[in-house]
Amino acid sequence: MEKEIHKENRFIPHLADYKKTCHGFRWEAVGKELALDSGKLNIAIKAIDQHTGSWRKNKVALYWEGARGRGSNQPEADMRSGRNFTFAELSTESNRIGNMLLNLGVRRGDRVFVFLPRIPELYTSIIAIAKIGAVAGPMFSAFGPEAIRDRLLDSGARVLITHASLRERIHQVWDELPELKHVVVVGDRDRLWKGEVSFEREVEKSSRELEVEDMDLEDPLYILYTSGTTGKPKGVVHVCHDMVSHYITTKLVLDLREEDVYWCTADPGWVTGTVYGIWGPWLNGCSQVTFEGRFDAEHWYSIIEHYGVTVWYTAPTALRMLMKAGPEVVKKYNLKGLRYILSVGEPLNPEVIRWGLEVFGLCIHDTWWQTETGAIMIANYPSMPVRPGSMGKPFPGTEAAIIDNKGNKLPPGTRGILALKPGWPSMMRALWGDEKRYKEYFTIPGWYTTGDTAYMDNEGYFWFIGRADDVIMTAGHRVGPFEVESALVEHRAVAESGVIGKPDPERGEIIKAFIVLRHGFKPSKELEEDIKEFIKHRLSAHAYPREIQFMDGIPKTRSGKIMRRLLKARELGLPEGDLSTLED
Ligand code: WT7
Question: What percent of the residues of the chain are helix, what percent strand, and what percent coil, each to the nearest 5?
Fold first, then answer.
């Protein structure tokens, strides 16, 4: 093991003593702290409206920075590089959007999906959906028509809020979506396409006063689709009770406080962006930054400097890309305001931690969790020494363990299944319409199994080993091989395909596809490029195979399942393992 890092904080952490906090921790007490039993129960009241009754009314809740050059997609008034929103403004804006949705016939429990770039309307819409008791479905703006159709169809979404720059992808699949009644378009008042509703026009007509719904803790709040080894993406259902986890993990892990300026670089189309880029920080009354644009080393550093970001939650891939951009770039910016940096999504390499110590003078803290867990489950806390390469220790009030396939706890140092004891507030409550796959998480009695393998050391730190399934983690994004394989075979030249994650120094893994061509097609560079473009546009810009290898046949089991493990072993030159099920 690398040397433990004991770094003095320039602040007194909220979680000052891990052991003590664990000992006295009660979820009910957190509910009390949030005053769940007084007044109406709605996460949007706790996160937004409540602050308008205090001095925080005019505090900046959201510093929005637009992606330069994309202004032409936005209405005249929106052609600016950035704008700040106070809690009061977010409250009024979301009231009007809430009224618009009610006018469109949306009712409590209906699914409203949001397919927007990271513009202010994304944030105000999600708040509005919560206010009227509907279920939000955020979708990442890189998704193509195929990915969008799967999600809208499965969830039976009634309304979709999108942007003029993305609308074409919706129109390609709308007639396959009988339950989708309205498509509301941001950024085009006058030249609406068939069937669309103008966001701006409807919102203008809507009242600023809204009767916020009084929810039950177990009512659904949002659905996020995520991938497994097999089948289409699963709709992970989260409920209003999640706010308890959102609030307390933000406070104790991200260590946010009143005077912080916080930046979460994840898009709300991923769980990190919904939980720690919307709800968690605002439940804590904190100011947050969002940037519409894509990764760019200079631009990212300039955001930290310009807004005076103090706490920053990002991903290993981004950190590795910053590292690669070199020390000259970082020296141009004053990043002294930063006091705390955290990471999530993939293993955080010790090398990146060392780089962080050098350039920021701060130790980057790793956190571990999943779409299904709804909040951070394992983390490195500011008051605890960091063991570089370790994910840290379980959040107070949660029990994590390494178990065998019978549910026995394994001793320290032994590899096994990373499992959690069910019962924390933000655990997923269902997979939308798929009881069978939901149950697969609970096949070992008494435990929720994560799909990860890991071990615990003698001091109780958890160390990530890998996924126990074929799920691919590329640049911190979870991609199911089946989705890519199904999209690939829709290409006219592709007969069969097998898809794996291939280790990559920057992205963690890249997607690699093995392809058998249809009769009459020959391998070529052009065909390879054509297939890549096809997936980018149909499925998603982040889920296309960066590497393609043409083959004469894909190894399969006798029952016809693609043997991805074998493809991977051969790719990496590893032992091929048990081949008894391989078809002849
Ligand atoms: C999977 C969950 C919710 C965060 C974003 C990803 C991997 C997550 C770490 C970490 C190594 C990690 C696991 C996990 N993962 N955090 N700190 N170190 N691996 O959410 O898309 O639901 O994916 O991401 O494999 O199971 P997700």
Answer: 30, 25, 45
pLDDT digits (tens, 9 = 90+) for 48-72: 999 999 999 999 999 999 986 333 3
d(CA 101, CA 468): 42
Q: Ligand 1 — pocket residues by CB below 6 A?
A: 226, 271-272, 344-347, 366-371, 391, 450-452, 464, 467, 473, 478
Q: Which residue is associated with the tokens 């249809």?
A: 518
- Ligand 1, atom 2, lies closest to the CA of 370
Residues 56/59/63/64 CA torsion (nearest 10 deg): 80
Structure-token match 């195979």, residue found: 545
pLDDT tens-digit series, residues 255-298? 999 999 999 999 999 999 999 999 999 999 999 999 999 999 99
- pTM for the model stands at 0.94
Please, are residues 548 and 512 in contact by the beta-carbon 8 Å criterion? yes
Q: Ligand 1 pocket: which of 452, 463, 465, 469 to mutate (most atoms <8 Å of CB)?
A: 452
What is the pLDDT at residue 558?
82
Encoded tokens for 583: 């078809």
User: Rounded to the nearest 10 degrees, what angle do helices 120-131 and 87-103 cross at?
Assistant: 60
Task: Report the amino acid identity of residue 6.
Answer: H
Domains and CATH numbers, the chain: 18-397 (3.40.50.12780), 472-572 (3.30.300.30)
pLDDT tens per residue across span 111-140: 999 999 999 999 999 999 999 999 999 999
